Amino acid sequence: MTITQLQVPKDVQRVVEKLTAAGHDAYVVGGCVRDAIRGVDPQDWDIATDATPDEIQKLFARSLYTNRFGTVVVRSGEHEVEVTTYRTEAGYTDHRRPDHVAFTDSLRDDLSRRDFTMNAMAWRPGQNGTTGELVDPFGGQRDLDARLLRAVGEPDERFHEDALRMLRAVRFATLLDMRIDERTIIAIRRNAHLAATLSGERLNQELTKILGAPRPSVAFRMLSDVGLLEVICPELEECKKTPQDKVAAQDVFEHSLATVDATPASDLVLRLAGLFHDIGKPDTFADGHFHQHEFVGEFKARQILRRWKFDKETVAEVTHLIRHHMFWYETHWTDSAVRRFIRTIGLDYIPALFALRRADNIGSGARSPRMYALEALWQRVQEQIAAANAFSQRDLAIDGNDVMRELAIPSGPEVGRILGALFERVLDEPALNTREKLIELAKAMRP
């Protein structure tokens, strides 16, 4: 059934009305139409028109035009609306941007350059009580209703124009629970090698969205099946060849996917750590064991995340979790041992590390004993944190200035040695962490 009404914000509708009142065609287009049909409130609204950028700017004083693609940003009420002149494109030498852009007066020509049929629809809001008009030359609404992701026109052409569209296909199929049309998926397999031309920044954007899916494993299996994973992350593809004796998975790849699914969708650091926590196993597999795979994994994950242009803080947090994810707990640990564990991991990392271990256990199909031990350690860690004990030298009741003043010694390595020794004593006996007791101990350590 053809759509006869879509909810378009009044600010956006006013832009359309002003363009049509001036004698121009104007339609809401692309992803916002797709989302509105799905009943999802679009975050961004785009308009396509036969008006040229100069004509658009003459109509809208609050507008900005700074590109060669015919897009003018118009401020209307609470919305910044991108208004773009109908255009055709030709030549994609870098498999990303068109070499040539030409304006046209044909809406169909403009829609034909888009990636998927569900994104190649246009909507003209009704005016003065009239019904709106859906322009859908490629069957986008039908495909959307059937949950079918299909490239516009010839799939090979679409993917040669922009190689990122292949990853977008996987993302849309995952997030919108769609299946990819057979011709489209065959074309992805045929053109997967073009993904090697994609920049780390663009991969970062797509993969971050994929990792926000309820079950990222769906996307990563699909990326592997169509040949994209081997191009963008051969290290993860290699994990399919490494066997693993797990209840829930028979190889490192499947275990990693089960683990990432078990991490919270809202936490990108944990999602990345879950995906790559065992990335070092293929390189360390020997006699059924993976000796020190966490250290190799830390190194490889850092390489991958840097290649994908993740920021330094994210890289540092993810690799720290991978390095320490193989911690082990024995019930005979003393309170001092628990405090030393907290010191080694870092207080700020404790919640994330335990969340990663829980996900790892779920991904392994682990049951009671390992889970009980993990929860027992978690309880003991919380008790030590609640006691406000010192977990780093910063938590000591005195600092280097106090040591230099009370011992009358200059700044230098000796100050650091004394503070380190004091911290070790406090780890064993938290009650020593008072100014008076630490100064007394420090004086006894005077060289």
Task: Write a structural description.
The chain has 447 residues and is an alpha+beta fold. Among the domains are: 10-141, 2-Layer Sandwich (Beta Polymerase, domain 2), CATH 3.30.460.10; 335-386; 393-444, no CATH class. The chain has 23 helices and 13 strands. The protein has helices spanning 10-21, 31-38, 53-59, 107-112, 140-145, 155-161, 164-175, 182-191, 200-211, 216-225, 229-232, 234-238, 252-261, 268-276, 281-284, 293-307, 312-324, 335-345, 350-364, 368-386, 400-407, 413-428, 435-444, and strands at residues 26-29, 46-49, 63-64, 71-76, 79-85, 87-90, 100-103, 122-124, 133-135, 148-149, 179-180, 285-286, 289-290. It has a seven-stranded mixed sheet with strand order 3-4-5-2-1-8-9. A two-stranded antiparallel sheet has the order 6-7. Helix 19 packs antiparallel against helix 20. It is elongated. The mean pLDDT is 91.
Q: What labels describe this entry?
A:
23 helices; Beta Polymerase, domain 2; 7-stranded mixed β-sheet; 13 strands; 447 residues
The main sheet comes to:
7 strands, mixed
Count of alpha and pi helical runs = 23
Spans where pLDDT lies below 50 across 5 or more residues: none
The CATH class of the domain at 10-141 is identified as Alpha Beta
- CATH H-level superfamily title of the domain at 10-141: Beta Polymerase, domain 2
Q: How are the strands ordered across the major sheet?
A: 3-4-5-2-1-8-9
The Cα radius of gyration reads: 29 Å
CATH architecture of the domain at 10-141: 2-Layer Sandwich
Number of strands: 13
Q: Share of helix among residues?
A: 40-55%
Which class of secondary structure composition applies to the elements? alpha+beta
Calculate the mean pLDDT score and round it: 91
Strand content: 5-15%
Shape: elongated
Kindly report how far apart the N and C termini lie. Answer: 88 Å
CATH topology-level fold name of the domain at 10-141:
Beta Polymerase, domain 2
